[in-house]
Amino acid sequence: MKPKKNAYPAVNIGSSFMLVILIILSMVIFAVLSLSGALRDARYIERKAGRTANYYQANNAAEKILADIDRVLAETCEKAELFTEEYQTKAIEELNQLDHVLASPAEGTEPLILIEYSVLMGGSDALEITLAANDSRSGNDGYYYITKWKQISTQEWNADSTLPVIKSN
User: Fold this and answer.
1) pTM passes above 0.85
2) Are 126 and 117 in contact (CB under 8 A)?
């Protein structure tokens, strides 16, 4: 028997179909990888937006407390002269009546008042604020100046994450 002249080799049978399947399969894999990356990014953005919203809510609450402190110091200034022991005593008494505010005399030569308070941000974070009042350095800028306005973690750090490097028998 003589072979037919118009016959195609067996290697080329379905090769174009296999190429199309391979291209479609690779496109589906890339689509799934893109989708999973987009979902991961969306979850991260939602967490970040929540933390940012919590920060600004805590910042607004801290500003309201700061306005109350400013009001108390202004009222105390009307009753007693600034930079005196009398002003320090009256201001500390009035400030300690505010919620979440701790006022105490600072050690030193002049009657300096340290005012501390913190505002929870939700989760394990808080804003910690410290003010110095009745200080001659504040001058004409107001009754106090801010010494610390900082975001802190309220959870205790747990360093118990050891790895068993050497096994003891």
Assistant:
1) no
2) no
